[in-house]
């Protein structure tokens, strides 16, 4: 079933959340997400997103509400790129490398109803919350912690956490269907802030239509084939992972999630799962040279790397390509809604 | 420059005619069209389409007018997929294999202001026109003949022909710019008729938005890379060549045009121009078995073949694949606006 043709036939608004439902139907046996011991298929990811969206609706999340996230590239971060906009709300992924003061500026401006926090950033969040004066006009967001699914040390176990929310979500069939019907394709899907290098972070609003087209633009210009295996070396908080969050779903690919980006982790995942694509800043390209120097010429498929930000030196590119990586250099700003290819 | 991002940024309507301008800027040295001795680059194709559109405007063609075409896969047929909608008019490519009576039914229904006729179909057109009662309420369309550029025998040399129209077109810069600004992406770009196997042909209206999305759908699902070399074995009058007319422009590819589809012509063009993609009905797959049996395993790239219509027998597919063709089977109807991939 081809969602592009169907969108047009029914004049359905363009939104990348339709990629999720399509992936669950067209690629029912493909692995959607891998993270440590956790492996999901596309139907499981679809089910989890529907449950989370239903739970958010039960928490009175509604159209154009902001839901902020402080998280590394774990499955929850990926799922929320679909589940939050499925409710009509706007996701706001926050750069976890910012200091407490800058994050406080973002929260004061975005005024989220809910803030999802990965357990790793619980101390940072405490620091941020102390900086913010909450009152009736600017109420404190509901904090929901994300614990690793196979972690033994649970944070805030007495409170509602991410997995608890998914368990309690009850998506009726009609609710699940309506969640894929965005009212207007120009509605916001994501609120992304610039890094604040020149001034306070500035908010950039991405529309459902913009996200959809940006995902297709990447597929076309990076020449991505169906069912890629995508290693998450680029933070999803960077302009929604340059829209690759949604592009991987459009292609029925596999998301290999990484909490920490290190050379051994990158090489282990490439070898274990047959990674075909990854994106990163030039700094991560340098990591690749530090890693193993094993011959990977036997690999039937090269690893395609999309890099952006500062221009990597020619010598670095040459060395990385000798290791079996095919590097494409893109250009982008948070404001340009995904990378632009020249 | 990425047209997808730009369309969104400026909230420009989605239309595949923007692919042409982008190709002329992003792929200035790539060959756009090959036909016999004629070779054009993308800037040349862009210039010719702007000239033709300007000439059509000077003939009082305006928004939502119908311009019909009876033509094989020659450069004019390709160019008119851009030049006609650039004026706001709607192209109506007619199946040249229909009999005069059926074509007359289409013309009576579509009521074109202009009918472009390739010289090969001049006798058929005479037959069709004799069947039609024209009067003030249903005026006879202006007939414009298309002669092969390198042909020595010109038809209707005293009258205005296609190349004469291009020569007389005067696209001012502001006119050329405005021709890429479709007012509403839901406006029709093409009026295609079904083949009339079950009843009189039925008209199907394709919108600019639908054509744009259908082109991108093909790129994604057929896994087309940038700069393909596309051999036109599928008639462009079949649902705008399953939207591949526009997809090839989006990718800055090369259109290898064919007046007659025969095995020697197919193999000659594959060998001369390094064809990467072609589309056809299963009958043409049979032609491939009749052609040369030379070993093509030395080819660095296989020829990707998209086939549709009736299902080709497994034995035929196997034999064709042994010849170095990679076959994908799609499904489509004129009504579905390009093929659908399952």
Structure description:
- 2 copies of one chain form a homodimer.
- With 342 residues, chain A is α/β, with parallel strands linked by helices.
- Chain A is 39% helix and 17% strand.
- Chain A has 2 domains: 42-207, 3-Layer(aba) Sandwich (Rossmann fold), CATH 3.40.50; 211-336, 3-Layer(aba) Sandwich (Rossmann fold).
- Chain A has helices spanning 3-9, 17-26, 42-58, 75-86, 100-110, 122-130, 162-168, 173-178, 208-221, 239-242, 244-250, 263-273, 282-290, 314-322; strands spanning 31-35, 38-41, 66-70, 90-93, 114-118, 142-146, 188-193, 203-207, 229-231, 254-256, 277-280, 303-307, 325-329.
- In chain A, the strands form 3 sheets. Chain A has a 7-stranded mixed sheet with strand order 2-1-10-9-11-12-13, sandwiched between helices. In chain A, strands 4-3-5-6 form a 4-stranded parallel sheet, with helices on one face. A two-stranded antiparallel ribbon of chain A has the order 7-8.
- In chain A, helix 3 packs across helix 4 (75-86) and helix 13 packs across helix 14.
- Chain A is globular, with a radius of gyration of 19 Å.
């Amino acid at each position: 079933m081809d969602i592009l043709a169907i969108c047009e036939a029914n004049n359905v608004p363009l939104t990348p959340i339709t990629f999720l439902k399509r992936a669950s139907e067209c690629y029912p046996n493909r692995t959607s997400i891998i993270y440590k011991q956790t492996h999901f298929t596309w139907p499981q990811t679809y089910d989890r997103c529907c449950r989370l969206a239903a739970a958010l609706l039960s928490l009175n999340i509604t159209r154009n509400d902001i839901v902020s996230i402080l998280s590394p590239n774990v499955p929850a971060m990926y799922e929320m790129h679909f589940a939050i906009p499925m409710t009509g709300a706007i996701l706001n992924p926050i750069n976890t490398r910012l200091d407490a003061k800058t994050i406080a500026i973002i929260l004061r401006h975005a005024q989220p109803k809910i803030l999802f926090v990965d357990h790793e950033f619980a101390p940072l969040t405490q620091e941020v919350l102390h900086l913010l004066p909450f009152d009736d006009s600017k109420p404190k967001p509901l904090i929901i912690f994300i614990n690793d699914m196979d972690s033994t040390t649970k944070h805030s176990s007495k409170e509602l956490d991410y997995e608890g929310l998914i368990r309690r979500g009850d998506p009726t069939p009609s609710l699940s269907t309506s969640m894929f019907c965005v009212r207007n394709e120009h509605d916001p899907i994501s609120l992304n802030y610039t890094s604040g290098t020149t001034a306070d972070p500035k908010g950039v609003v991405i529309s459902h239509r913009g996200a959809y087209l940006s995902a297709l633009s990447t597929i076309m210009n990076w020449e991505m084939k169906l069912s890629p295996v995508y290693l998450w070396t680029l933070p999803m908080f960077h302009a929604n992972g340059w829209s690759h969050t949604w592009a991987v779903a459009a292609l029925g690919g596999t998301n290999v999630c990484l909490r920490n980006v290190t050379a051994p982790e990158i090489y282990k995942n490439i070898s274990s799962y047959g990674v075909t694509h990854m994106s990163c800043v030039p700094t991560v390209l340098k990591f690749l040279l530090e890693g193993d120097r094993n011959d990977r010429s036997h690999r039937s498929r090269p690893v395609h790397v999309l890099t952006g930000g500062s221009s990597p030196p020619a010598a670095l590119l040459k060395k990385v390509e000798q290791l079996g990586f095919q590097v494409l250099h893109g250009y982008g700003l948070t404001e340009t809604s995904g990378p632009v290819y020249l």
